[in-house]
Amino acid sequence: MRPESWLLWASRTAAWFAASLFACLNAFAGEVSSVGLDAPQEVRALLKQYVHLLRMDASAIPDAGPDRSALVRRARREAVALLATEGYFSPDIRIARTDAAHWRLIVEPGQRVTVSAVDIQFQGGDGETNEREQKIFFEQLRQGWSLPPGTPFRQADWESAKQALLDALRDERYAAAKFVSSKAEIDADAAQATIRIVADTGPTFRLGGLKISGLRELPDDFIARYNTLKEGAVYRRSDLLAFQESLQSAAQLSVVVVSIDPDPQQASAVPVQVAVTEAPPRRVGFGLGASSNTGFRVESTYRHLNLFKKGWELAGGLRLEQRRQSLFADLFLPPTQSRHHHRDSFGVGLDRSDLEGLKIFTQAAGVSRTTRRGHIETQMSARVQHEEIEPEDAEKSSYSTFTLNMGRIWRAVDNVLNPRRGHVLEVQLGGGMGLSPQASDFARAYGRIQQYFPLSKDNVLSLRFEGGYTFADTRDGVPQDFLFRAGGTQSVRGYAYRSLGVEEGSATVGGRVLATGSVELVHWLKPSTGLAVFVDSGDAADTAGDFSARTGYGLGMRWLSPAGPLAVDLAWGQKEKKPRLHFGVSVAF
User: With the C-alpha atoms ordered 499, 505, 510, 515, is the resulting torsion angle positive or negative?
Assistant: First the structure.
């Protein structure tokens, strides 16, 4: 080729290449009006949330040049990093432009990596733990590993599984446990991940004495009275939490934190650190309320949480209801420093009521001991009381009695305020002897069980049964608290509160026999609002031969209000043949 021909060809080729390059750059440089995404559904939300190019306004994309190129490179880096957290290590990512104005980020994640093998090894320890028990414990940890072979490898799951393993070690005797190494070896071509972990347990921790901070006005032994830990015991985090919950139940404390310093040098007797903040010692409260049982209510309460700076709690109050009024004062002592942590109290009270034609005026003083172990609460009480009763159109009477009573409640429910699974069982055994000629000696037994069954996510079935019997020659001379009346909320709906019992004159008084039952189905429309259907039946009588069950049934509404659970029921009493509204609500301020 002659030189001039070669020069002509070269100049034409250069011109064509320049024109093509200019056209491509011009298409890439034009103003962008939209940026779309083509990606599988399982990664679309992640990419749209975190890839900057997909979140920014298309009109804000820079003009042609380094800024625009840098933005495209950033989008690709972000997509690659995000897909890796979900187990995709070989993605194909590109930007397609049908024209200058419309871009699409195209993402093909490729094959997802799955876990192929897991190797977890433990080392360390001080020889204190039985070798067989230790092997069983370590094997349980391996079996509980949450990222076993065959599962997709995700970064979040990997981090969570490691933390759960470390927490399990630190929560059970090995407070200073740590990882020597933790690796996830990724074979992107085979789409497999091999997990290898070596954990150093460190020494076995044993509990030392209490190290208390934050006490100002409360006595020095106040915290120790709630202590459920034993010096020298093997450290378990659950034991510390149980001690913390015990302290949190004390009204005298507003903030409680129980912990240890996981220093291996202190493992043989690690101090238990108890940091507390005392609550204000005096509280005054007022409240308003209403219920279908006793009418409108106003009340005032006073509490002194550190009487005489001994940690004693004084609680007193006045409650005025339409059909009942009461005045009371109780003194609660801190728990005893014993294995079962009893709590003793002393109290006096006046109570006056006028229900279903029966006026009762009671004056009482007593002592009680309450013991809580897990979900079981036991109370034993002794009381001296004087009672005056005045049935309408019948003879008045009064008598003094000394009574003993033991009650135990088992609460095994998933939520105390809104139970949907579990049961509540209560048993009471008691008796009394007369201190005046008109009073009678007696014994009494009472039981109640309520069972909750979750039929589905939104439907809960509850069954309730209660029964009682007072052993006495006659009901005369027995305090009304140890006899039985039925009717009203939490009893037989469709009948007035305590309207089922023994007729005396124009009044309803307590009898020696009680049996009631209830079936209720609640359908929750929302987490805090539900509708109920129910059937109640039962009666209270003086003898088994006088017993005649009354039945009520109806519809109700349930509302988990900020002030507490609220139930409103409209029930039809089959014998009375009329509807009756049952409800209860209260507001404290």
Answer: negative
What confidence score (pLDDT) does residue 9 get? 36
Q: Provide the residue range defining the domain that includes 127.
A: 114-200
Q: Given a cut of 50, is residue 210 above it in pLDDT?
A: yes
Average pLDDT rounded to a whole number, residues 74-82: 90
pLDDT digits (tens, 9 = 90+) for 176-206: 999 999 999 999 889 999 999 999 999 999 9
With left for phi above 0 and alpha for psi between -120 and 50, is residue 12 left, alpha or beta? Answer: alpha
* One domain for residues 565 and 501: yes
Asked if residue 472 lies in contact with residue 498, where contact means CB atoms within 8 angstroms, the answer is: no
Same domain, 241 and 165: no
Q: What is the DSSP letter of 172?
A: B
CA 480/CA 482 separation, integer angstroms: 5
How far CA 346 is from CA of 314, 389, 552, in Å, comes to: 10, 25, 40
What is the reported pTM?
A: 0.73
CA–CA separation, 510 and 483 (whole Å): 5
Whose CA is closest to 260, among 239, 279, 280? Answer: 239
- Among residues 250, 318, 249, which one has the least CA distance to residue 281? 250
Contact 392, 506 (CB under 8 A): yes
Q: Does residue 420 sit in helix, strand or coil? A: coil
- Which of 200, 215, 247 corresponds to the end of one domain? 200
Q: Are 47 and 75 in contact (CB under 8 A)?
A: no
DSSP per-residue letters across 69-138: HHHHHHHHHHHHHHHHHTTB-S-EEEEEEEETTEEEEEEE--SBPEEEEEEEEEE---S-S-HHHHHHHH
Collapsing DSSP states into helix, strand and coil, what is residue 480? helix
Quick check: 427 and 411 in contact, CB under 8 A? no
Complete DSSP assignment for 187-251: ETTTTEEEEEEEEE--PPPBEEEEEEE--SSS-TTHHHHT----TTPBPBHHHHHHHHHHHHT-T
Tokens 């003086």 label which residue?
A: 542
* Closest of 246, 243, 305 to residue 278, by C-alpha: 305
pLDDT beyond 70 at 338: no
CATH number at residue 97: 3.10.20
Answer yes or no: do 523 and 471 share one domain: yes
